[in-house]
TrEMBL record:
Phylogenetic placement of the source organism: Bacteria, Pseudomonadati, Thermodesulfobacteriota, Desulfobacteria, Desulfobacterales
Name by which UniProt lists this protein: YkgJ family cysteine cluster protein
Native species: Desulfosudis oleivorans (strain DSM 6200 / JCM 39069 / Hxd3)
Domain of life: Bacteria
Pfam family, one: CxxCxxCC
Amino acid sequence: MNVLKKEHIAKQTTCARCGICCEKGGPAFHGCDRPILESGRIVLADLYTLRKGEPVFDNVANRPDTAPTDILKIRSANGMSACLFYQRADRSCGVYADRPLECRVLECWNPDGMAAIYQEDRLARKDLISGLSDLWEMVLAHEEVCAYARLSQSVKEKNWEAVAYCIRYDFQVRRLMVEKGNMDDRLFDFLFGMPLTVTLQRYGLSPQQIRNMVEG
């Protein structure tokens, strides 16, 4: 951020609708946001899960970290970084009346509000689907095999056979849920997190290395 931008923010007291925060991605959900999802205004297919232990970037602390719990976030639009509901043409929000807590408290000129709630009462997959026993059991089974604590250790030890097994398991679960369960594949990033073929690149693995493991 250059000096002029810092000075601008220092003098700012209201949202200028510059769109920068929305361009960086969607918000995470907290317990008080549950009614938004239950109303259907934002649906599970609009979300993705950062799973416990997954390498992430902490925007408040401004440093790499690992997710301490599930973090449910609004997905990005068309492979871009911007929030799915950000309307670039007029820099508006498609769900403004039902925007989550993080959007409501975010003030780029005063980060204290966001910092205060950032880690608090985060909504998790369990909160939303544990009552659907068959589906929740699938999520738990996937988590047991593909837990990031296990993946991180396997990468650290260069146990590529174990890493490859997780990648293939993750891939097959998603495929079978479509073929056998007729499930909308837009739900998978919420149910199982982002594909391991994508997230393992954060450990320094190249796309080609990952493809080789998938193909075995």
